[in-house]
Amino acid sequence: MRPTTHEERLEAAVYRPLTHTSQGWYIWTMFLLLLIGVGSFAYLTQLQNGLAVTGMRDTVIWGLYISNFVFWSGVSMSGTFISAILRITGAEWRRPLTRFAELTTVSALLMTGLMPMLDMGRPDRMGNLLRYGRLESPLLWDILAITTYLAASLIYLYLFLIPDAALLRDRLKGKVSGLRERIYSLVSLGWQGLPEQHRRLERGATIMMLIIIPIGVTVHSVVSWIFGMTYRAGWASTIFAPYFAVGALYSGTAMLITLMVIFRRVYHLEEYLTEKHFRYLSYMLAVFGIGYLYFTLAEYLTIGYKLQSEDKLLLEELLVGRYSPLVWAGFFGGQILPIVWVLFRRTRTIPMLFVASLLVNIGMWVKRFIIVVPSLSLPLMPYEWGVYSPTWVEIAITVASFGGFALVFTLFTKLFPIVSVWEMKEGWERERVPERALVPSGAGLAARPAMFTSDTGRYEP
Question: Which of the ends of the chain has fewer CB neighbours closer than 10 A, N or C?
């Protein structure tokens, strides 16, 4: 029987990937595993032969790994941060995309945490950073901030999975393996939609939303201080903390748009991820993009006006020298063009937004590379410029990080719905039930009737 109601159509759309596995899913998963396998082989080669197999040398001590580190940390800010802001403000249009945002943060942070380990010649000494690390070191701040952010983001993602896990526990009983049933039962924590359970969920959500926002800002500030507190031309800037934070929001919003377009097409979620959601996200992208453009101009204008000797050499290489193709391509392709597309209604279509988001992702990765490598290539003594060319090892590991990011999404959407079913139903119930029948709720969670019954998936007064 063909589903007719909102609830039935939603469940049919988001539960189908959990119970039906297409041949395309297996091919895609095998492709991602192949990318990760090649990256793992490259890393084993690095472990066996040392960092000599990379393009990093005494002059350019950071390369693709740290560029990836800054890029993935930037992408991570979009998810939980944007989700928390939208929940706190009570934006009803947030409901279909919050899980996209939260999962983006977790996936990106997992890749972020791997990069410093890959960059170390002796990863077995990673523990020494915690045992003997100095509190004066921004590197130690970074490790503490990222691990804290990852832990908080996992908790935040998990809290809003509990009601959906209860729905899956009841809906998919007998339709999935016994292991999956036990997973759903374990994750749901005995959720029955009782008023006391709702109050506890709201209390936990309120705490995490209030905590996650300053943690997100702290992480990207600390990442910027690794550069800003180092005596290098191009890095000695007091605006790096807000510059990195705005850039993180810009690239993270672009990644969120990219993922939503892909899943909208593959999982046929057009009814739930509508043009309105992309329009609002495009507004956010434009605001963050204009803010990032301002910081970019302020950074180069300040350096160019003073034009100290080392800054002069760096600017020449960036604007008219060996790095100029990357700089100008990233500037126009990753900042100017996407903003222009978003500002005009005629080009603010979903396909164009998808292209614009890809350009932003590429442009922001290029920007991270430009921040890292040229400043290290600049000689501190009257010698020749340092030369850095990434080797196949670094490229394979970089590609594998993107494969790992995609694999987290691929596996997650095989276990849990990518659109939060209970939040969508809560929003519809809010529209149907008169205000006097609703119980006010805090933490940005919608007002609701007194009881949610997981057996029926509906609120019952």
Answer: N
